[in-house]
Amino acid sequence: MPATAGSRRCGSVSEVPGAVPVPGTGQALAAAVARLRADGVGVVLTGAETTLPYARDRSGHDPGDVVFAVVVARSVADVQQVCRVSAEFGVPVIPRGAGTGYAGGAAATEGAIILSLGKLTAITGIDPDSGLCVVEPGVITSEISAAARAVGLRYAPDPASAAISTIGGNIATNAGGLCCVKYGVTRDSVLALDVVLAGGELIHTGHRSIKGVSGYDLTALFVGSEGTLGVVVGATLRLLPVPLGSVHTIAAFFETAEQATAASVDLFATGVRPSMLELIDGVHLSRIDDWRGSDFRARGAGLLLVQTDGLAAAAEAALLRDVLVRSGGEIEVTDDARRTDELLDIRRWTSQDQAPRPEITLNEDFAVPRHRLVEMVRLIEATSARFGVVITILAHIGDGNLHANLRIPRSELGPDGALPERAWLAADAMIAGALEFGGTITGEHGIGMLKRRWLRTELGDVQYGLQRSLKTLFDPQHLLNPGKVFLD
Questions:
Q1: Is 1 a domain residue?
Q2: What GO molecular functions are on record for this protein (predicted)?
Q3: According to a count of CB atoms within 10 Å of the terminal CB, is the N or C end of the chain lower?
Q4: Is 6 within a domain?
């Protein structure tokens, strides 16, 4: 769970001469590190000064006083050898991209090797005729979009973290984004994968063709598997044409987040599917005002950002604007590119807020059916009041994905950095509500460490067992990102 950083032995790996390595121990890790160095694999890091930056992700989860090593891979062959050595010595391997995840999926664990893929950054090919590109996992997502636009195409998934997250991390969690309401999530744009299995074998799943149904869909299985089934070392991605015509952006301010949510649901009665539909609550608007000297919060406590694109963008925006006005919104519509960027910066900043704050954030990202969204927002607000926890709301509201973020003052953390019990009780209440409304515990962040406690409740015993069996089939020694996703 989130905690403040303290002293630790991170990366303090020492070899014991003549010792027989026991799997899962410091001796096994030391022996594996020695083998990898002898093999000339990547860049091998030990010692707290060099390994500490790899200990955690953006979830705030503190792994505590753990010993681990880091291998920075420089090639697919490096990844294969790390997995072979891992299997030989019984050493866990934790694949890592940019460490931007919110669920603790890339956090270090005792005796593990953090396998950094951040140096595998090649865009190895773009095929404009077939509408696809081939990339390595360490490529920053926004760089794929830029490369595609140079040939008149686009990579449609647009996570708010696109400027800092890697495509490998996006694939690991099946990341969503601002444009998913119209263009789908990461899985919808992945055609094929290159994956290194637990024993070091390299397999190729999927097809370069748009269609293909040969055998089971292992590509879709690996997307969202959080590095527990294999290590993604390459991806073939679908590219789409850049929409013709202009983009129209609507900013609609409402008195409350609940009002804004109700208006977002009403938009779909027009038959228009917007290319973006995002919600920002009043707390975030206040923080944006502090950041940029604006006055957004004075205009309301709920902001909808709506976009339409394509040749019919203007007509569609007009239809949506009318609904928003009737719903009580204060409306701004623009097709100016600079103003559009300013408005989108508001949403992106709320996800990447790095301003120093005396708080820990527990990021929830459940999703519910669209017709239950208003009830879910009410439940979040009631939960905040019931447990005395500040909960802020951001949402990919168009596809029902709500980020309800619990803000806990650092002064309320336990001596070991633990969250107060009322924070977990509040999270339990929201998760229970999301499941009752027919939703899911995570829309795009994944399970990682922080959501393991709720997975069996959503899946049920039979499906939970089946999924654990799949894990064992792909990873018989349970060495790939162990302790993540499944509680035991």
A1: no
A2: FAD binding; oxidoreductase activity
A3: C
A4: no
